[in-house]
Structures are given as structure tokens and as C-alpha cells.
């Protein structure tokens, strides 16, 4: 139905030159939906949104699309193709054009690509307060998988006894990937290698063995570990989390309670949604804002 109601919408591949327009739309869309619900915007200003999309639009392992109406860009969406599970987002539509079927078309475009190349599954993280995105993703076949709490702050406890946290280096990749396969059934080695190169990744060791890692202690970083203790050590190793916060699975009550006792504040509720392969993680973890 949306296709016939919006015959003029054209979906095409995004190019780096589209980033300034799409980044501004991304900022406008998130600031409006967040302000409407009394939450802070995911991006503090248009520039970080433009920089994020410029990175994704030029990345060889991201498939990115824009929607045009009468030659004017009205929205964009991205598919992270760095692992056997594809991650979707950020999808944003010009606020003046929302609720007219453009979001569905941009979702369909990346899902078609995902089904062709990443049949194991696709995932995304959704702002839990947003009725429209929840409805759209559910209608398209995504299942609500995990409630998340975006938390921010500086933990009172600054070190977890028995856990040593240090910067990750390339030599840690095999151990981290093996850990991820044990916990999740797949690894995110390409993403982790990039994070190590950029300098944001950390590992935690107990008894001289890697028991957890974080690609970044940030909104866009994920972490995987043997136990809550390892995640706590990673969270305690930084002064704050880059971006709005990190996404703690709310059903991991022990970990969320530890965060609260340690003074972290909940910024907003979010939801991990998945399609296709999903194993209940056999360990502790938190997803990035992509999945
Ligand atoms: C979320 C967003 C991408 C969706 O794009 P859109 O063009 O507005 O959405 P569409 O019109 O294509 O689809 C919305 C669907 O939700 C349905 N819907 C909207 N509100 C609903 C509600 N309260 N209950 C049930 N269904 C609802 C619409 O009827 C439509 O369904 P259909 O596709 O079956 O016709 C867009 O609104 C946006 O940019 N929002 C701000 C940024 C954001 O939140 N991005 C997502 C981050 S997870």
C-alpha cells in the first residue's frame, strides 16, 4: 500500500556526497522525536550525525540507501554488513515527510539486501517509546528480543578485584572472536578489528586469560564477556561512555542493579529487535546501537 500511496519515492544507493543532507535530516528526525517524548537527542548537533553517515556511506561493508521525492532527499537508511548478522540503522526520515510510507520503503530496501547476503539474520535497536518505529519493524517481521536500558555516568567502583582491563590490540582478536562465538554463536571480527585500529577497544583479563571485550565503551560499541563481573570491570574502566550511553540488557537485573548502585543513570529505554538466527547469549553482553 505505501508503494502506491507514494509512487514518486525513489530509493537509490547513498554516496558520501549525500552525507550533509542526510545527516541534517538524521539530526532533525531524532531531535524532534526525542523532544516530543522528553528525551535527549541521540546527537548533540547536526555535525556528529553528518560525520556518522559520512563514515557509513563511504564504508565498504555498509550498504546505504537514500529516498528521494521529486529529486529531493527525504531520508536514509544503512545496513552494517560486517558480520553474518546484518545490523540496520540509523533510519531517519525528514520530519515533514514522516508517516507516509518512506520509512517502510527504506526498510524494505536494506532488508532485501540483507536477505540476499546475510540469510542468518538481521537486527536493530529501537527507541522503546517510539510507537511508530515499533509498529513498522514488527509489521516487517522483526521480533522484540531484549529490553535495553541506555545508561550513562561514572561508576563509583573504579576497579573490580581480580579483573585487569587494558586496551585491546590485534593479537587479542582470535581470543575475542572465540569468546563471541561461544557467547553469541558468531563473531564480529571485522568490526572489532576496526575498533582496535581506532583505539577504542578494551579487553578484560582474569588469571591472565581474556574473559571479556568491548569494541568501545560507547553507544556504538558492543561488549561480550563470560560474566557480569567482566562487564562491570569494563564499565568501571572509563570516566563516561561516548554518546548517550551504553545499552545494558534490562533483564540482566544483577548487572543493571550494579549500574544503579554505582550511580549510573538510565537515559532512555530501548529495544533490541531481531529477525532470523538468535541464540540466547551464553554469557554477559551489551549490544551497540546497531545490534
Ligand atoms: C521511524 C521512521 C523511520 C519511520 O518512517 P516513516 O516514513 O515515518 O514510517 P512509515 O510511514 O513508512 O511507516 C509507519 C508505519 O507504522 C504505522 N504506525 C504509525 N504509528 C502507529 C501506531 N501508533 N500504532 C500502529 N501503527 C502505527 C503506520 O501506519 C505505518 O504502517 P504501514 O507501513 O503498515 O502502513 C520515521 O518516523 C523517523 O525518522 N522517526 C524519527 C527517527 C527515528 O525514530 N528513527 C528510528 C530509530 S530506531
- List all distinct small molecules, including ions and cofactors, that are bound in this structure: coenzyme A
Counting DSSP E segments of at least 2 residues, the number of strands comes to: 14
Largest sheet: 9 strands, mixed
Quaternary structure annotation:
single chain
The percentage helix is 25-40%
Structural class: alpha+beta
What is the mean predicted local confidence, pLDDT? 96
Could you tell me the strand content as a percent range?
25-35%
Rg over alpha carbons: 19 Å
Shape: globular
| N-C termini distance | 29 Å
Number of helices: 9
Instruction: Identify low-pLDDT runs.
Output: none
Secondary-structure element string: HEHHEEEEHEHEEHHEEEHEHEE
Summarize the entry for a quick read.
The protein has 9 helices and 14 strands. The protein has helices at 2-5, 19-36, 46-58, 102-117, 131-139, 173-184, 189-198, 228-235, 253-261; strands spanning 9-13, 62-69, 72-80, 85-88, 92-93, 121-127, 143-152, 164-167, 202-206, 209-214, 223-225, 246-249, 265-276, 284-286.
Sum up the structure in keywords:
single chain, 291 residues, alpha+beta, five-stranded antiparallel beta sheet, 9 helices, binds coenzyme A
Task: Please tell me about this protein's structure.
There is one protein chain. The protein is α+β, with helices and mostly antiparallel strands. Helix content is 34%, strand content 28%. Helix 2 crosses helix 3. Bound molecules: coenzyme A. Residues 2, 29-30, 33, 89-93, 98-104, 126-127, 130-133, 135-136, 139 line the site of coenzyme A.
Amino acid at each position: 500500500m505505501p508503494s502506491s500511496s507514494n509512487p514518486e519515492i525513489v530509493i537509490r544507493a547513498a554516496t558520501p556526497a549525500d552525507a550533509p543532507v542526510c545527516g541534517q535530516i538524521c539530526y532533525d528526525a531524532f531531535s524532534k522525536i526525542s523532544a516530543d517524548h522528553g528525551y535527549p537527542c541521540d546527537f548533540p548537533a547536526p555535525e556528529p550525525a553528518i560525520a556518522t553517515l559520512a563514515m557509513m556511506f563511504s564504508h565498504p561493508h555498509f550498504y546505504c540507501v537514500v529516498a528521494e521525492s521529486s529529486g529531493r532527499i527525504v531520508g536514509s537508511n544503512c545496513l552494517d554488513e560486517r558480520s553474518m548478522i546484518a545490523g540496520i540503522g540509523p533510519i531517519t526520515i525528514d520530519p515533514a515527510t514522516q508517516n507516509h510510507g518512506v520509512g517502510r520503503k527504506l526498510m524494505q530496501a536494506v532488508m532485501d539486501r540483507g536477505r540476499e547476503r546475510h540469510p542468518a539474520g538481521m537486527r536493530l535497536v529501537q527507541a522503546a517509546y517510539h510507537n511508530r518505529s515499533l509498529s513498522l519493524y514488527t509489521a516487517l517481521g522483526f521480533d522484540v528480543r531484549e529490553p535495553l536500558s541506555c545508561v550513562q555516568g561514572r561508576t563509583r567502583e573504579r576497579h573490580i578485584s581480580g579483573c585487569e582491563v587494558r586496551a585491546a590490540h590485534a593479537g587479542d582478536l582470535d581470543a575475542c572472536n572465540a569468546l563471541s562465538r561461544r557467547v553469541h554463536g558468531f563473531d564480529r571480527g571485522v568490526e572489532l578489528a576496526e575498533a582496535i585500529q581506532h583505539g577504542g577497544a578494551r579487553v578484560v583479563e582474569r588469571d591472565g586469560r581474556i574473559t571479556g571485550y568491548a569494541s568501545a565503551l560507547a553507544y556504538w560499541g558492543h561488549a561480550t564477556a563470560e560474566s557480569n563481573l567482566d562487564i562491570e570491570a569494563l564499565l568501571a574502566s572509563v570516566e563516561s561512555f561516548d554518546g548517550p550511553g551504553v545499552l545494558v540488557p534490562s533483564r540482566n537485573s544483577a548487572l543493571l542493579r550494579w549500574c544503579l548502585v554505582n550511580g549510573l543513570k538510565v537515559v532512555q529505554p530501548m529495544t533490541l529487535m531481531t529477525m532470523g538466527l538468535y541464540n540466547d547469549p551464553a554469557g554477559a553482553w551489551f549490544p551497540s546501537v546497531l545490534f
